[in-house]
Amino acid sequence: MNQDSDSSDQPTGQDPLLLLKTLQLLWTKQEQRKLKEEVRRGFAGLEDPLAGLLAMLENSSDWKGKGHSLGYYITTELQLWIKEHPAVPQSGIQLKKLQARVLRILSQCPANLLDPLISIYQLHTADRNYLLEHVSHLYLKGDYKEAAILSIKLKLQPDQDVEKMCIPLLLQDKVNVVEDYVGEYPELQSKLLQILDSWCEPGVNIRDITRPYQGLSRYKPEKFNHRTLSKLVFRLLDRFHVDPALCPNVVNQRHLRTLNYLFYKRFVEKTMTEENWADHVQSTAGDSRCLQGHLVQLLLRHCPGRAARWARHWGLPMDVLPPGLAEELPELHTQQRVEEATKADNYEDSKKKDCYQLPISRENIHFLQTWEETLQCWEKVLQPGQVVGVDMEWKPSFGMVGKPRVALLQMAVKDEVFLLDLPRLLEQAELEGEKEKEKLPQFIQMLYSDAAITKLGYGMSGDLSSLAATCSALKDIEKQLHGVVDLLTVDKQLQKGCGEWRKDGRKVDGLSPEHSHEERGVRQREKGLSLLVHHVLGKPLDKTEQLSNWEKRPLREEQILYAASDAYCLLEIYERLCRDPESFGLSSDLMESLVGKRSIKPRAKKQLNKQEALSPSGQQCQGSQMETSRAPAPVSPREFSVVCDNMLQGLGRYLRCLGVDVRMLDNEDDHRKAAEIARQEGRVILTSGLPYQTLQSQVGEGRCFSVNCSEKAKEQALQVLKHFNVQVSLSDIFSRCQVCNCDKYLKVPRERMRQLVEGSRQASQEPTAVCPGSQLCDVTVPARDTAQPGCTAHREQPEELERRGADAVLEGGTVLQVDAIPPGVLDRAELTDFYCCSCCGKVFWEGSHFGRVVAQFQDVLLASGDAQSVYELS
Prior knowledge:
globular; Nucleotidyltransferase, domain 5; nuclease; single chain; 6-stranded mixed beta sheet; 21 strands; 5 domains; Exonuclease mut-7 homolog isoform X2
C-alpha cells in the first residue's frame, strides 16, 4: 500500500484520541499487520501528527512502563514516517509549544522513549536556558536520576555544576548514571575525581558533606565511607584513563592498605619471602615519609630490630623509635639474620616434602631473552598435535590503576619448559625495526589460533587480557582462539561435586564445609590452581613466589622454578583427567567435550552494567562446561537459583514470577549476607552499584552479577534472563509462590474451597476435627493464578486437611489463607480449581495476571519456542 492511498483514506483532522482507541484494540489483539497499517493511515489523517502523538501519550499510561509498549511502538513508527515525509516537522512558535509539552512527558518516560522523542521534536534546537531551567525543576523536585539522564541526552553537562548533579546520585548508588554523565567530558571527569578525592583527605568527615541530603530516598549513610569512595575513584580512574596523580589522597590510602597487606603476608600468614616483601615495601612506600613512618610503626609491634633498620635505611629521625632501640640495632640485626636463615632452611626442607615438584631436570628449563634463543621454542611448540601448558606472570599491582603487563610468558611441553622474557624481547624488536617488531606477536597469534595445537591454561581470560595490554598487536587475540582448554572450568566442576578430595585424588564423602581443612586434607590457604593440583596430583603448588616482582632482573632461582611449575603442572593435570575422569567424579562425556571443543568465547567488550560478568558457559559462571565459542548453554528457571540484594526486591519478585528460585535479603540485612547465602546454597548473587565490588570477591568467579540500577525491575529481569540464557516456558510462569518461593501446591476444586471458606466463618464454635473429603486435595501443580491448557499435575501422597478453630490447616501445620479470597470469586463460573501454597497457605486462582506477565515477557517466551501459546493466552 503506497503512502498516497494512505492519505486519501482518511479525512483531514482525524481525532488523535479516536485513533488511539483503535490502536489499543489492535495492540491487545496482537494484530501486528493491521496495527502498522492503521498507524500509518492515522498519521496521514492527522492535521498535525506531532501534536497528535503528544495527545495520545498524554491520554495513555502504558508507555510509562519499560519495554515494547504501544506508546513506544507509535513513537518509533512516527519517527520512521517523518523520514518518509520530510515536510511534516514543525518550526517556529508551534514547535516551541510542542517542545514545552514533550519536556513534561520526558520526565516520566522510560529510557527507550527519550531518543525518539528528542529527535521528533528537535529538542537539540530548543532554547538551552529553557532546557536547563526544566532540568533544574526536576532536580529541585528530587528527581535526580531523571534530571541527570535528560541532561545526558540533551548534552547539558558543560553548563551544570558537576558536584551538585552527581552527589545525590552517588548517595543513591546510581554510579552508572554518574559515569554516563561525565563520560564524554574529560574536564568534568577530572573535576568529579578531584571532588571525591578531597572527601578522602585525612580529617574530613563525610557525614558533614552528606548532611544536607539526609532526607534523600534510598540513602544509606553507613554504606558511604572512605573505603567505598576509594574503590569508586579507582574504578573511575581506570575507566576514564585519568592520571592517578590527580587523586593523591585516595592513592595514599591504597598504599597504606598495601603496606598492611604486605605486613600480613610476611609476618602473620608467613607466605612471602623476605626478598619479595622488601621489594614491594620499597616500591610502595617510595619517598613518602607518611608511608615510611606507617610501616615502621607496624614493624615496631612485631620485630623492633627490623623497624630500626628500615628507619635508618630511609633516613627517618630516630625519635620515631623507642629509646635505646637504635643503639641495640647491630646486635638485633645479627640475631635476626641467624633466626631467618634457620627458618629458611627448615622451610625449604618441608616445602620439598609437602608441595608439587617438577618432574624434569633444571637443564630442561630455558630462560629466553633473544629472538635467536626463542627459535628453539617455536620449533617445538608449533608442532601439530602438540599439547602446551601456558601461563603468565606479572608484577602485582595491589589494586592500582591499569591492566598488569606480562613480565614472563611460560610455555611447557613434554619434558621441557620455555620462559620468555617478554619485556626484553619486545624491547629488542622495537629497536630492530618494523619487520622484527611483528615476529613475536605473529608467533603468539599462530599458537593461539592453531586448532591442531592444544593450549592449556587456568583462568585464561585474565592472562589474555594482560597480554593484550602488554602488546597492542595482540589486542584482538581473544577473537582468534582455537584449540584452547581452560582448566578453571574443570576445577569448578570438581568443586561442584558433593564430596571433597584426599591427597591421593580419591573422593571423601560426607564432609561438610564445617569440617576442618586438616580433615579434608587441604591446607587452609590453598585455592585456585594450587588446590586443583592438590586434588588431581596429590600435592599443592608452592605459591611462595606468586607475589614476586616479576619485572626485576635477573630472576632468582626460586622464581624460575615456580614459573616452570605453574606451566608444567597443567600438562600433568590434563593427562591425568583425560586418562581417568571417573576417579575424580567427572563424567566421560565432560572429558570428551573437553578434548573435542577447545575454543573459549572472547569476553564482551561492553557489558550492560559496565561490570565484568561472563555467561554461564564461560569460566566465570557455571563451571559445568569448558568455554566454547557457542552461546551460553540454556538453563530452565527451575535449575537457576539466585539471591537478590535488598535493593533489588522488585527484580526478585519478577524472577520468582517466572519460576526462578529466588531468595531476597530483607531491608535491614547487610549486603554481605548475600555472599554467605550464595556460598551455602550455590546461588548466583544479583546486586547493583558499589556492593558488587565487595560481593564479587567473596564468591566464585561469575557467581555475582551486577544489574543496571537505572533500569526498572522488569528490564532488569530480562537482562538477567538473557545474560544467563534462562529459557522460560509457559509452564514456568507462577510455578513458585510469589510470597514464600515454595514450588509445591495443592489443587482444590471450587466447591471444596467454598466449603472451607464457609466453614472458616462458622468454625469459631466448632471443635477441631479432620475435614472429610481430604482426598480432593491430593494433587500438587505448578504454581500460577490461572489454569493453563496442557498442564499435567503431579500426584503425590495425599495431605490431610484439618480445621483448627477458624482455620483450615494442612498436615504440616500450614494454615490456608481462605479468608483472603475476595467476595464473589467463588461464584465465577469459569473458575474450577484453586491452588494453595503448601508452605505459606496463600491461595491462587485464575485471573488476568497470567496474561499480563506473558505479554510483558513475550520476547523471552518467543525465544523458547512458545510463540503460538503466547498469542493464544494473551
